[in-house]
Amino acid sequence: LRGYLAAPAPVLKPSFFVFAMLCSRSIRAVLRPCRLVVFDKDGTLLDDAKTWAPVIEQLGARLASRVEPAQLYELLGYEPRTQHFGSRSVFMTATNNEIAEILAAKFDAEMATEFRRFFRELPPSAGCGAALTPLRPLFEDLRAAGVLVGMLTSDDRVFAEAFLKHHGVLHLVSASVCGDDGLAPKPSAEPLMKICERLGVDPQEAAMVGDSADRDIGAGLAANFGSVIGVTSGISPADELASAGAHAVVSNVSEVLGVVRRRHAALTATW
Fold first, then answer.
1. How confident is the model over 227-248, as pLDDT tens digits?
2. Shortest CA distance to 203 belongs to which of 28, 29, 30, 32?
3. Number of CB atoms found within 10 A of residue 172's CB
4. What span, in angstroms and rounded, lies between the C-alpha atoms of 33 and 21?
């Protein structure tokens, strides 16, 4: 570079600008095209407070003869006065199997059994809840751009699919992994790698989107996804998502396609 600057300007300036332009292009196009976006569900696609606050309070009433509701809520990361789930809420991030194991360890096996029974008896409609943004246009826009849609949730499949069906987008999700599918839970890379394997997508050509700094961002990074995007619509604030290693943080999943377009090389002319 020193030689370029020291040489006579009329001869070498054009070469210097070509060199700089090529460098700039290589920086902008460092990531391969994005072919898959995997969404977490609760707190990312679904309003967790509106959906799960009534359910956890039903659970508290159900188990009240065994444990004070306040003690249960503290253990599971729920504040009943504000109907808010904490940033490390077990209830919002763990699989039901993990929660049962926590209850068994803290209390006894009967507590875990009663918890499992509660969710077996809970109607799937209880998990349909309110979407945080209209999902159909979001998923259709992604698919129109050549991007597949996946979902990775700690929730049981019966509730996850009821939610997608209720909001008219079940057919737009190409692959999903749920908490009772028998795979390692987030933040393990295993469920994300399984989705990529099913769809034939390289992890570097995929994005993970979620609201949990520990679980969602952790899983995306563990799976070496090209983009790991945090959303502040759920349990983790922006600073926790960024500190966990999120490549981008947005307020709502409606902004995800814009982030993907900025970070990845174009896949189709529709971009």
1. 999 999 999 999 999 999 999 9
2. 32
3. 17
4. 21
Which residues, listed in sequence order, are joined to residue 131 by a DSSP beta bridge? 46
Query: How close are the terminal C-alpha atoms of the chain, in Å?
Result: 35
Nearest-angstrom CA–CA distance, 130 and 155: 16
Structure-token pair, residue 125: 């409609």
Q: What percent of the chain has pLDDT over 70?
A: 87
What distance in Å separates the CA atoms of residue 221 and residue 41, rounded to the nearest whole number?
A: 18
Q: Element (H or E) spanning 93, and its range? A: helix 90-93
Of residues 108, 100, 45, the one with CA closest to residue 76: 100
Span 190-212, average pLDDT: 98
CA-wise closest residue to 38 among 238, 166, 244, 216: 216
Please tell me the total number of residues recorded for the chain in this structure. Answer: 271
Structure tokens at 162: 């009821």
Residue 242 CB neighbour total at 10 angstroms: 16
Q: How far apart are CA 225 and CA 214, in angstroms?
A: 16
- Position 112, amino acid: A
What's the whole-number mean pLDDT along residues 16-40?
61
| Rg of the chain in Å (alpha carbons) | 22
Angle between helix axes 109-121 and 48-62 (nearest 10 degrees) is 130
**Hey, what amino acid is at 57?**
E
User: How many whole angstroms separate alpha carbon 266 and alpha carbon 82?
Assistant: 43
pTM over 0.70: yes
The Cα 27–Cα 19 span in angstroms is 13
Per-residue buried b or exposed e for 125-163, using 16+ beta carbons within 10 Å of the residue's own CB? eebbbebbeebeebbeebeebebbbbbbbbbbebbbbbb
